[in-house]
Amino acid sequence: MAEVKWIKIATDIFDDEKILLIESMPDSYAIITAWFKLLCLAGKQNNDGVFIMNDRIAYTDKMLATIFRMKGATVKLALDTFEQFGMIEKIDGAITIPNWGKHQTLDAYEKKKARDREYQAVRRARQKALISKSSDASSESSSDVAVSDKEEDKDIYNICSPEPDEREQNFEKIYAIYPKKRGRTKAFTNYCSWLKGRTVNGKRRKLTNREMYLAVYRYVEQQKAGGTELEYYKNFDTLMGSQLLDYVEDTENEQP
Question: Which residue in 60, 100, 182, 241 has a CA-CA distance of 20 to 30 Å to 134?
Answer without folding.
Answer: 241
